[in-house]
Amino acid sequence: MNIDEFEAFKIARIAAHDRGWQWRPPFWISLDEGEWRVHAESECVVRISAQTGDLVLQLGFVDPLIAMAAAKEYALKNDLSWKPAFSLCLTAEGWDVGACQSQFGGQTNIYVSQHGEVIRHQINPK
């Protein structure tokens, strides 16, 4: 059974409701590597197998304080900027920890997996 974008959206809407998530527009629906990913304005993402229509269970994410500590340790070891203002955004792969967010250019983003390990980093050039 392959499901289309309409069925994926219906499944995602029900899953979000069952999880107690706020579910409001705008919505973004994409198909990537055999999974429908339905995003809502509230940054909730429901992942659905395009082949079976089953929800793709996501592992629990590490506590944001642990992610921030891992990002700071990584920044200091790799001589990256680490100063206020900070941001923490939950993505499909884990936490995006941002530092230096109030400057014009030079912002640092460190991506921490759901297991608390740094995946990569990115620096916005000045």
3D architecture notes:
- This protein has helices spanning 5-18, 64-77; strands at residues 28-32, 35-39, 45-49, 87-90, 94-99, 108-113, 118-123.
- By secondary structure, the chain is α+β, with helices and mostly antiparallel strands.
- Strands 4-5-6-7 form a four-stranded antiparallel beta sheet, with helices on one face. It has a three-stranded antiparallel beta sheet with strand order 1-2-3, covered by helices on one side.
- A hairpin with a 3-residue loop joins strand 4 (87-90) and strand 5.
Termini Cα gap: 49 Å
Number of strands: 7
Q: What's the pLDDT, averaged over the residues? A: 84
Radius of gyration: 17 Å
* Biggest pleated sheet: 4 strands, antiparallel
Number of helical elements: 2
Placed side by side, the strands forming the largest sheet appear as: 4-5-6-7
Q: How would you summarize this macromolecular structure in one to three sentences?
A:
With 126 residues, the protein is of the alpha+beta class. Helix content is 22%, strand content 29%.
Structural topology:
Blueprint: H1 5-18, E1 28-32, E2 35-39, E3 45-49, H2 64-77, E4 87-90, E5 94-99, E6 108-113, E7 118-123
Antiparallel strand pairs: 1-2, 2-3, 4-5, 5-6, 6-7
